[in-house]
Amino acid sequence: PPPPLGGPPPSRRAGRRAAGLAAAAAEPAGGGGAGMEGDRLESPVAIKGIERELICPACKELFTHPLILPCQHNVCHKCVKEILFAFEDSFADGGSESSNPSSPRIKISSSSMDRIDRISRSGTKRNSLTPRSSLFPCPGCQRDIDLGERGINGLFRNFTLETIVERYRQAARAAIAIMCDFCKPPPQESTKSCMDCSASYCNECFKIHHPWGTVKAQHEYVGPTTNFRPKILMCPEHEMERVNMYCEICRRPVCHLCKLGGCHANHRVTTMSTAYKTLKEKLSKDIEYLISKESQVKAHITQLDLLLKETECNSERAKEEASHSFDKLSHVLEEKKSAALRAIEASKNLRLEKLQMQAEEYQGLLENNGLVGYAQEVLKETDQSCFVQTAKQLHVRIQKATESLKSFRPAAETTFEDFVVDIAKQEEILGDLSFHSNGLEIPEINEEQSRMYNKALISWECPGKTDSADTYVLEYRKLNRGEESAMWQETEVCSKSKVISDLDDDSSYAFRVRGYKGSICSPWSREVILRTPPAPVFSFLFDDKCGYNSEHLLLNPRRTSVESRAGFPLLLGSERMQVGCYTTLDYIIGDTGIAKGKHFWAFQVEAYSYLVKVGVVSSNKIQKLFHNTHDVTSPRYEQDSGHDSGSEDAFFDSAQPFTLVTLGMKKFFIPTTPAAPKDPASRILPLPSCLGICLDCDKGKVGFYDAGRMKCLYECEVDCSGIMYPAFALMGGAAVHLEEAVTAKYGEYHDDI
């Protein structure tokens, strides 16, 4: 891989873990040669105090060749590459949460795993030694940062931070020395480093490689160091140009080529000396202000110490209260459990007793046993009066036993279906068990801002307009007709909107949201039910080539909106109109056709629109559409004009080269068909705010929908023998806007510097 800017990276043989260096930094620095010019240690204590500012957030070690990210955080050059490779490898392995074996320094946190798919999809392909992703998950701010087209190669090395880290390392020079790069084994301890050669030397090797009277004798040398910073900072975009200006918009150094024709051409820039002076003055003033407030800072520290102790006490008290609450809940459950088990045991004993008695009765029906044996002995009685006295009661018992044999029924049920405990509702309640707070507002889903199209965009807000919650949890589930609804799926959101993908077509989904502030959460919001389109969303733009009348129609630059402008051409054309005839429609179609399958698209018609027709047209009838000689909007051919309705229907069926419905004056007009209502008033519906069209080429049907509720307003058959195109027609003042697809925005971050 290419080395970081400013020359090849030195070996990591002198790199140590930050903890080890911190211990060494606490000892007085002695020996090891002179330090770099201007790099003397202020004091071991002062250096040790800034240790946390010198540690990479990724590897938790001292920075080595730190790069400045667009979010102004610093990360080691090697860590940047390892993080990108780790994410790509994890995505290739199915998103494993274990650390990448090839990158033992980097651990992929579970909170970052949900961004693997986004990062991998957004990468641009490069060579095998360069990470493909242009989005980088910053370990400092946990945001996805766009590295641009050049990726890692477009980042500056933070040489100032390298110098400070080197000062910190100087404290450990006595314990861990830098060895000479040119000595034969065993190498000697180096006494100086050459900034031009980017190497360290002992006294003998330095004399050999920098002899007097040569050009190398003029090289700049310092004390032993591993921080070889270049004398001139070069532009990462134009590697042969030095940076000599500062872009105030992007807040980064640039060269003159960046300003002339690069990405900073229209940005406000200033000279490097002016930027240096301005930023240094601001930084100095801010530091002086902080130093002057030392007593206030100490007071705050004392207050924070008290708050730490108070937090410890309050947390222990909260733990006791929570434990007591769960103990009470456990006690209630134990009582319910004991009562249920006792009831089951009592029912079991009663049933066993009944079944045992029944078994004994049947046992007596056996020969020479029980009732049968007793009856046989009674039959032996010869005295008639005594026999009759005993046989009457015995005969009743024998009859009952005979009837029981004919219709055998157990005396008790063996199943315990009545003793099944239904805990579904209680389980759901326990799943929602959390720390509720009355001070945390219940969010409300904004149904006007939320919409369902190719994806679901769910937006919510708090009634008090305050951001009392830190994060939100959005849950959604599919509602099945006549079946049990699916399980809730949840996603954590830091903003007040979320885009949900991969939803089933022609299905209803319920959404709800709750806010979290730490471990405290608000109750769930009211559930909102939205329905997905009946088919996959079809994307297209208005065609500005085929049949487009630029005199009457006006397209926006993105070709997503078309407007009919009734200007002078319409007034001039009125001279050629016959009495009782209106002007013709201006047609426009989509730039993409449909050959098969089922597709859906949506659009909005402005409320002021006088007349708009929407629908589909076949490719083999497009020419007839734009060159139709009949004026279908004149009273002679108006379907509802009342002139010979039978011939009008025949004309409508045979001469129309397309399938369209009429909109206008805030109304939706259902076409005249044999199946349509006879009453004209019942064929006029209010115009929805958003309309949709669903074309099923396989079944030869087209449906017109209220896209806000995904409700079908009208459906008819259509000939799909050719390629079908979305078609629109406008007359007078009218406008149509295509519905834009829902897209998720990635890589956003706030620049607070």
From TrEMBL:
This is E3 ubiquitin-protein ligase TRIM36. Residues 442-535 form the Fibronectin type-III domain. Its main location: cytoplasm. Residues 1-11 have a biased composition (Pro residues). It comes from the Eukaryota. Keywords: Coiled coil, Cytoplasm, Cytoskeleton, Metal-binding, Microtubule, Repeat, Transferase, Ubl conjugation pathway, Zinc, Zinc-finger. One of its GO terms (biological process) is spindle organization. The keyword Cytoplasm applies. It is found in: Cytoplasm, Cytoskeleton. Residues 520-751 form the B30.2/SPRY domain. Residues 230-272 form the B box-type domain. Pfam families: ANCHR-like_BBOX, COS, zf-B_box, zf-RING_UBOX. Belongs to the TRIM/RBCC family. The gene is TRIM36. Residues 379-436 form the COS domain. GO terms for molecular function: ubiquitin-protein transferase activity; zinc ion binding. Gene3D superfamilies: 1.20.5.170, 2.60.120.920, 4.10.830.40, Classic Zinc Finger, Immunoglobulins, Zinc/RING finger domain, C3HC4 (zinc finger). Residues 17-28, 98-113 have a biased composition (Low complexity). GO terms for cellular component: acrosomal vesicle; microtubule. Residues 1-38, 94-115 are annotated as: Disordered. Coiled coil: none annotated.
